[in-house]
Write a structure and sequence with these properties.
Order of helices and strands: HHHH
Radius of gyration: 19 Å
Number of helices: 4
Mean pLDDT: 92
Largest sheet: none
Structural class: mainly alpha
Low-confidence stretches: none
């Protein structure tokens, strides 16, 4: 006689909705990218693809793909933050999105990006630190769209 024991292992999922974070990050990356192109196209065409030695020559299409990919990854991190904080107010989630945009500006754009671009020998290397006000605006727009789209689709995915 044999016995069979069924065991179920329920995987614990991380906090937040990573699917909503990914899509919201893509939306934020597109909105921010459009604003960057309107205000300083070289950032998308040269600086962003230079991070991965994909420019020069200038390549705005590759720059947008890289930029939107960064937005998606940072959107997943945002979803984890929102889930870990267990936020229950849509306005608070959008506010945290704006705060996340400011944080990514202060750390990634102002500190990491100049070092990275210098390390790869990019002609688009900004000074270190690079606390440029237009870049702050771009990242606030990213965070605002990120938070707003996350709130809009979180319960649908």
């Amino acid at each position: 006689m044999s016995t069979r024991t069924d065991t179920s292992h329920e995987a614990e999922s991380p906090p937040g909705n990573w699917r909503a974070g990914t899509l919201a990050g893509i939306a934020g990356g597109i909105a921010m990218g459009a604003l960057v192109i309107a205000m300083n196209a070289a950032t998308i065409a040269v600086a962003i693809p230079s991070l991965y030695t994909l420019a020069p020559p200038a390549n705005p299409a590759i720059g947008m793909v890289v930029h939107v990919s960064h937005g998606a990854v940072l959107g997943v991190v945002f979803a984890g933050i929102v889930g870990a904080l267990d936020l229950d107010s849509d306005a608070t989630v959008v506010g945290v999105g704006v705060g996340w945009g400011v944080a990514t500006w202060a750390v990634l754009a102002a500190l990491v990006m100049p070092v990275w671009l210098s390390a790869v020998g990019s002609p688009a290397s900004p000074p270190l630190p690079n606390f440029a006000p237009p870049s702050l605006l771009w990242h606030v727009v990213y965070g605002l769209v990120l938070g707003g789209v996350y709130v809009a689709i979180d319960d649908k995915l």
